[in-house]
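Milestone 3.1: sequence recovery, worked example.
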């Protein structure tokens, strides 16, 4: 592969958030800006013609992803071009930034050997996947790079057909960098994990159609899973789209990802000590390794921060404390995960928190406490934070260089490596040796009133309507008796262009908000545009429900293509916004006009 082919987010972008966040003003400033249809190129030290070419290539690649796979890279991507770097490289932040660091302007020329047209197609493929994953934890080896290489190669074919040699200020033939090269690479017998995954996607696409690969990947990404859940969902949707047995083309090493230890535990031999400040009493018993003074800080894209603690005989983990600070925009709607692992790195449990737990941005760092955990832990255990940061949205974690031997970087299911520069500034408090008592069962919800067997909360008169970019519409129902959910009904209307080839997901969750089943429908189920809103029925089958369950619709709308959902402000308390496998936030303006039929 070329020097720009194998730019893994998990390797190269480990410093993405660190570099751009530390130099926040640099990420906002440039000598010039070229505005494309789906991106903006900010450039420093290069001629405008190169920046215009990058914008044109990205815009064309965006269309290529939609054409080839029915998927959309970010339509507000930022390509940051700078010169004077120690080495030329192309990388991304897993959200919407692509960085092109150049030693000098000569590395933009075709004679340099760098494959910039392919590189943009490749990085757009990374953003398609990574921007939709809640975390890379457990992503099977090679899948991230393999997807970007496969998709980028096919999209390069599209770019070549659309732009030809005119794509670059110095015209040249880059057509050999596309799918033909990938097919040749797939004839090798010594495939590494990246190439094996790329060739797996290619084989499925050539047998069943590349658009089916795109449909399956888009569906697998729609509920924003962690990496460990991606390929299992992809295989399930592929079989549903292409026919039973299609997923048999996926080798186990590409398909399977279970959060289990990937190597022997690292030996961390320094004992834990109790550290106190003047405002803490000795009785609080915080275990930590720092002296309350940070010697540095890190934000790690594609990885996480973890510390090993010891407690003789085990106990109940009551609180965790971390010293850090948020960076990026004044407000953030991102979330992060705090995981508790045993000494073999198996995940005991995890907790989701909003980024805004770190209310202040920038230095100085400050302590944030996470209490009410109540987790029974063994004698040795790990506390791990996965912030999934980007260049413009993340959290710094402080470290103490005067202590070391207890801290690692990594994610559950992806392996851990020792952090050599010190110990992360995390502390834990254990309440005792008795495991936490189970939480009391929630009271059953009252069944809503309805006619003709429909469960509903509305009076058929909408008081408003919403389309929610980056989120979905969810409503909770209660069925006193077990039965089959046969239909869902929604009052809404489509907006945008007269015709749409977009699709959306209808997901059924149980009372614990675990996915029971999901269905895919075309936007054209809503044939009419604009008001008045109207009822649309969705026929389901094979969905057994009992007690509490949720219906969630994710339209993934844009400003020019989406669906309004009506709400009744005279009802309330049953509706939420959010996506599967993410926290659902209460919708406080009423109840969505969604009904369910259980028979």
């Amino acid at each position: 592969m070329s020097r720009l082919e194998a730019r893994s987010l998990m390797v190269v972008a480990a410093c993405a958030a660190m570099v751009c966040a530390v130099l926040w003003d640099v990420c906002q400033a440039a000598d010039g800006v070229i505005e494309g249809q789906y991106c903006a190129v900010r450039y420093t030290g290069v001629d405008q013609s190169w920046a215009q070419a990058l914008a044109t290539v990205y815009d064309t690649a965006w269309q290529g992803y939609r054409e080839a796979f029915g998927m959309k890279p970010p339509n507000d991507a930022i390509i940051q071009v700078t010169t004077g770097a120690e080495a030329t490289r192309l990388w991304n932040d897993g959200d919407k930034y692509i960085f092109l660091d150049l030693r000098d302007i000569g590395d933009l020329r075709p004679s340099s050997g760098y494959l910039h047209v392919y590189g943009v197609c490749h990085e757009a493929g990374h953003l398609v996947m990574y921007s939709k994953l809640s975390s890379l934890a457990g992503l099977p080896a090679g899948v991230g790079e393999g997807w970007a290489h496969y998709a980028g190669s096919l999209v390069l074919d599209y770019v070549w057909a659309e732009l030809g040699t005119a794509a670059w200020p110095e015209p040249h033939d880059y057509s050999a960098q596309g799918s033909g090269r990938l097919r040749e690479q797939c004839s090798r017998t010594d495939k590494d994990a990246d190439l094996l995954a790329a060739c797996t996607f290619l084989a499925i696409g050539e047998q069943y159609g590349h658009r089916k690969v795109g449909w399956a990947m888009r569906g697998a990404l729609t509920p924003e899973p962690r990496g460990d859940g991606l390929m299992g969902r992809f295989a399930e949707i592929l079989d549903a789209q292409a026919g039973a047995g299609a997923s048999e083309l996926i080798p186990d090493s590409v398909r399977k990802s279970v959060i289990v230890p990937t190597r022997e535990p690292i030996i961390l031999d320094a004992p834990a000590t109790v550290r106190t400040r003047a405002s803490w009493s000795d009785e609080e018993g915080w275990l930590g390794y720092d002296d309350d003074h940070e010697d540095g800080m890190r934000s790690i894209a594609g990885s996480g921060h973890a510390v090993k603690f010891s407690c003789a005989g085990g106990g109940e983990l009551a609180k965790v404390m971390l010293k850090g600070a948020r960076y990026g925009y004044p407000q953030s709607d991102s979330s992060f995960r705090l995981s508790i692992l045993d000494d073999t790195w198996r995940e005991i449990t995890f907790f989701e928190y909003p980024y805004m737990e770190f209310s202040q941005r920038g230095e100085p760092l400050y302590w944030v406490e996470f209490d009410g955990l109540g987790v029974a832990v063994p004698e040795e255990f790990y506390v791990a934070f996965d912030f999934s940061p980007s260049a413009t949205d993340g959290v710094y974690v402080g470290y103490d260089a005067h202590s070391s031997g207890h801290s690692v970087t990594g994610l559950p299911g992806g392996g851990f490596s020792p952090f050599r520069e010190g110990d992360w500034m995390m502390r834990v408090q254990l309440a005792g040796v008795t495991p936490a008592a189970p939480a009391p069962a929630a009271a059953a919800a009252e069944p809503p009133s309805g006619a003709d067997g429909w469960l509903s909360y509305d009076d058929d008169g909408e008081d408003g309507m919403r389309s929610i970019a980056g989120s979905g519409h969810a409503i909770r129902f209660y069925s006193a008796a077990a039965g089959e959910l046969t239909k869902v009904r929604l009052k809404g209307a489509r907006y945008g262009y007269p015709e749409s080839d977009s699709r959306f997901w209808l997901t059924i969750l149980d009372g614990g908000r675990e996915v029971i089943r999901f269905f895919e429908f075309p936007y054209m189920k809503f044939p009419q545009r604009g008001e008045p809103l109207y009822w649309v029925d969705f026929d389901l089958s094979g969905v057994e429900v009992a007690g509490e369950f949720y219906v969630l619709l994710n339209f993934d709308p844009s400003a020019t293509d989406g669906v309004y959902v009506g709400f009744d402000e005279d009802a309330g308390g049953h509706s939420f916004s959010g996506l599967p496998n993410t926290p659902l936030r209460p919708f406080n303006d009423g109840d969505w006009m969604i009904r369910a039929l259980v028979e």
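The CA atoms of residues 320 and 428 lie 4 Å apart. The first helix runs from residue 16 to 22.
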